Every structure is written in structure tokens, then in C-alpha cells.
Amino acid sequence: MLSEKEKFDLITQISLDLNEAKDIDLLLERILTNVRRFFSADAGSIYLKTGNKLKFSYAQNNTLEKRLPPGKKLPYVTYSVPADNMSIAGFVAKNQQTVNIPDVYHMIDNVPYTFDSHFDELSTYRTKSVLTVPMTNQRKDLLGVMQLINAQNDAGEIIPFSPSDAQLILHFATSAALAVEREQMTRDIILRMISMAELRDPKETGAHVNRVGAYSVEIYEQWARIKGIPAQELARTKDVLRMAAMLHDVGKVAISDLILKKPASLTKEEFEIMKSHTYLGARLFRDMRSDFEEAAATVTLNHHERWDGTGYPGHLDPFSEETLPDSGVHPRPKKGEEIPLYGRIVAVADVYDALCSRRSYKEPWDEGRIVDEMGRLSGSHFDPEVIVAFFSCIDALKSIAHRYPDENGP
């Protein structure tokens, strides 16, 4: 069990996370991690309200994670449950009541909800104590449900959550709901920017950019662990990279439909125009006021650079008309570590998603062919160290693809 000082420090950290985190997925991760620690819970999950359903959006489980090889994560699992009285989470959502169950396998007979033991059977995990609470904003609108699983004592034995836990968690859930509402608005604004690009280029879908953003974070996290990057820097970088990577191709809004939607191969002149989406995208962030805007400018400008120096647009200032290709200047190529890390990572994530996805000119590649191609491009197109990180988290990337499917299939 945590000491009073440790609990105070955790409350402070949770408050910082709620105020500082910018990306909703990473916000959910930090909230759940620290709330679980505060209540000594072995596992937990967060459901977000989508229409009349609850979407299983984030989960953690210490016991199951300990069974994995070092550096590996539990796969993303996505499903929805109705906000009705049938399930525990659904009951809490519908009635906005906290439910504290000492043992889900021995519940009293007159409750309307049931416990689905299917996950326990598949994973050989034993759920026992469960504390489930609604996440509501100041208007009492339901945003989601937070669920903690298997409280533990100092000996690691599973115990019930106390009545005081049930009261205190409401404070965290309400604070988390307000932060989630704020970050949902941020995500929606980004997706609206992307939807403008989608109107021009059908490949720039919300699913595609969510995958590229999530892939980029997973690859960076593995790279950072290999490099021994401090945890605080890792968390801060993940936050800005996730959103910046989603905007990698936003500059395509400035490219003509005749080029973006051309069914045939582009001419040399047309391709030169297409390449301008990199610095035109970066130019959208001219007046930078945050780390996120700086990261977004870096990603949009550099995600088509190649490790061997054959990418584009090279060394140029996107904010100066005098250094752009239109001025007659041919920028010096960027190669190796001259390319910012964010650009090197998003390049891998973007190409991987393109190979996995259906396009008007191709079917999705099979897994073996994708793996061979990504490995073949190491040292030419891609930073070899980033490719090592990519291969170390490829199982997580495959599960992300299921979390953000295209509307018409992969």
C-alpha cells in the first residue's frame, strides 16, 4: 500500500497529467496508470461514450503484462457495449452510479447486471474485486466509465475496494472527464483539419492518420527505451508526436485536384508540385507557440526525407520564399541524422500503413511481403535504428490497425 506522501505525490502527478497532456489516448494511459497506483489496483480500463454505447478505449493489467517479454505491451482490444443494465459498465453508464463489487463471481442475486467471464477464460486471469465509476463533466453529461480491477494489499493478495475508495475515485473520474472532454475537442479540431485534406486526397482519411499517429508513438517508445531516454522526456515527446504525426500530409490541401486525384502516374513536373506539400504544410505552423506546433512543422516538412539523402524537400526554410524550389534554388539533400527524429519515425509509420492499406492502384500487401520490404529499405529509405524499433513493436502496430480500421476494409 502507498504511504500518505506517495499518495499526495500521485495526486499531484495526476493533476499535472490532466493539465499537461494534449493527446487523448496518452491522457487515458496516464490517468489509468496513476489512478491504479493510487488505489493499488492490479488492472483497469476506461470506456468512452460513443452514441448510445461505451467503447472500450484503454486497458492495463499488471499480471498479464508481467507474462510478456521485456518491452512488449498488451495488444489493443476494441469493442463496444450498450449503455444498459446488462453489463457492469453499462449499468454504471446508464444510471450514473458507482458500483463496488467485492467478488464478481459471487454477486448478490438481485442486481440487474452480469459479469462476462469470457476474458478471464481466454487469458487465464482471475477478476475478483471491481470498482466502476461514471465519468461525468460539470453538466453531469456522461463521457465514459472508469473501472478498476483487483485491489491488492501489501502482500499482493486480492482484497475488496473500500467504501472510502468508492467515494474518492469519483473525484478522479470527474477531473478525468473534464480533461477528456477538452482533449476530445483538440482531437476533433485536428480531424477536421485532416477532413479538409481528405476532401482533396481520398487517401487522407481519419483512420489513416490515427494509425500513423499511433504507430509513430509506439515506434518512438521502443526507440527511446533502446536509447535509454528518461521517462519524463519519453512521455512528453509521445504527447506531441502523436498529434503532429496525424498532420503529416496536411499540406496536400494546397495541391491541385488534377494532381492529387490523377489516376495515372505523375509527370516529372507534377511530382515536383506534389513534393511542395511538405513545406506548404510546415508553413501552416509559421507562428509557433507550442511544442506541438514545432513538432507538426518538423513532421510535415521531413516525413518524405530518406536516410540515404534521396528524399525531399532537403535543406530549405519553409518560411522563406528565397529558399524554396520555386525560386530556382535546389536545396541540398538531407541525409542520415540531418533528418529530424520525428521525420525519420513518421516516414516508417507512413510507409508501413501504405503497404498495409488498400489503394485504388493496389491491394493490401501480405504480412510477409511487408516485413521483407521494410527490412530491405533499412539504411536506404529508413534509419536502421528506427527500423529496429519498428520490428520490436510490430505486434502492437498490427493491433493498432484493428483499432482504427478503414470504413471499407483494410
Question: How would you characterize this protein structure?
Answer:
Helix content is 50%, strand content 11%. With 410 residues, the protein is of the alpha+beta class. The chain has two domains: 4-183, Beta-Lactamase; 201-403, Hypothetical protein af1432. Strands 1, 2, 3, 4, 5, 6 and 7 form a seven-stranded antiparallel sheet that branches. Helix 7 (206-227) packs antiparallel against helix 8 and helix 7 packs antiparallel against helix 16. The longest helix is centred in the middle third of the chain and has 38 residues, at 163-200. The protein is elongated. The relative contact order is 0.10.
What's the arrangement of secondary structure elements?
Layout: H1 4-20, H2 24-38, E1 41-50, E2 53-61, H3 62-66, E3 80-82, H4 88-95, E4 99-101, H5 118-123, E5 130-136, E6 142-152, E7 158-159, H6 163-200, H7 206-227, H8 231-246, H9 257-260, H10 268-275, H11 277-283, H12 291-302, H13 341-356, H14 367-376, H15 384-392, H16 394-403
Antiparallel strand pairs: 1-2, 1-6, 2-3, 4-5, 5-6, 6-7
Helix pairs in contact: 1-2, 1-6, 2-6, 7-8, 7-13, 7-15, 7-16, 8-12, 11-12, 12-13
Strand residue percentage: 5-15%
CATH topology heading of the largest domain: Hypothetical protein af1432
List the uncertain runs: none
Q: Please, how many helices?
A: 16
Structural class given helices, strands, pairing? alpha+beta
- Taken together, the total number of domains comes to 2
Helix content: 40-55%
Shape: elongated
Give the full name of the CATH homologous superfamily of the largest domain. Answer: Hypothetical protein af1432
Per CATH, the architecture of the largest domain is Orthogonal Bundle
State Rg: 23 Å
